Every structure is written in C-alpha cells, then in structure tokens.
Amino acid sequence: MLLFTPNGTLFYPYNSSPVFMSFTLHPALKKDCIEIGSLELCRVLLMNDSQFPWLILVPERNNISEIHQLSSADQQQLIRESSYISEKLATLYHADKMNIAALGNRVPQLHIHHVVRYKTDKAWPAPVWGKLDALPYTVEELEITLEQLKEFMTGAKARSASIAFNRH
Question: Which CATH superfamily is domain 3-154 in?
C-alpha cells in the first residue's frame, strides 16, 4: 500500500518499504528507540525518553555517516522529510524551539534528531544530549504518544495525510 503525506512525500508503514530492504539499523538506535514507520527515504524512530517529544530520521542507506555522502537527490529528500517532521512536531507539541541535529559522535550511522524544546524543560537552554538520563516511556505514556502522533499525522488537522505509525 502506498501512502502519501500532504506535501506528496511517499510514506511506508514500518517494514513495508519496497526499496533497500537490506538496510540495517545501528544496534544503539534499536536499543534506544521505538521504530514507528518509514518515509520515502528515512526510517522514523521515537526516542525512548518521555522527557522530550523526540523523533529521529535515519536515511535507509547503508554505510552513510554524513549528509554529504548521500546522493544529491537523497539530500534534497532528507531536507523535505526533516522539514515535514519538524513542522508537525512543533505544531503538535507547541514547541518553543525545535532542536534538529546530526551528531554521530556515539552512533556513526547517519541519523537526524528532531527534539521539541520548551523554555521550561529540564535541560533548557542547554542541548538535551548528555544532560539528563533518559526516562523511558511507560506503556501508558507510549500509547498516548503514539496515538498523538498517529492522530496528528492522519487526523483532521492533517486532512489529506495518509501516514500510519505502527506500534512496537
């Protein structure tokens, strides 16, 4: 089944992307995140830290650690997907600021963090990385968060969106 976001980006529910099936997610990302879906280029992960609304995009390309290593077309698609996710998170969670970064110091696989920030959060104004220990979602918190993301991406606010997130 092919699904599209309002801006025309192709979306695949997790594990159904017809391309790059041999893609391997870094073990640290598997350990720290919950896989919730895929866009045309990127796997979409939810960071398992309930202190911050935090999605991570991972381009489904093996052996890539830097954005400049992607093809020109993939670089452009990454910007489209990152902008789309950033806008949706900022709107859904009423962000004061979005922190978007590709660090890669600990995990060499290219991945882009999208963290909703508030002037009142525990780490403000410092970056969230290494500031606080992660506080994993409870089952109830995870259900609510996944439902919020799903509703926002597929609900009335998104109107023509056809994104569906899977629960894992």
Answer: HIT-like (3.30.428.10)
Domain-by-domain residue ranges, the chain? 3-154
CA dihedral 104, 112, 11, 25 (to 10 degrees): 20
Cβ atoms < 10 Å from Cβ of 42? 26
- For residues 64 and 48, the answer to whether their CB atoms sit within 8 Å is no
- Report pLDDT for 131: 87
Which residue is associated with the tokens 């109107």? Answer: 159
Average pLDDT, the chain: 83
- The answer to whether 78 and 41 have CB atoms below 8 angstroms apart is yes
SS3 label, residue 56: strand
Distance CA(65)–CA(141), nearest Å, equals: 32
Q: Is the pTM of this model over 0.90?
A: no
In 1-138, where does DSSP find H-type helix?
27-32, 72-93
Contact 95, 52 (CB under 8 A): no
Distances (CA, A) of 91 to 77, 86, 145: 21, 9, 14
pLDDT in tens, 102-120: 999 999 999 999 999 999 9
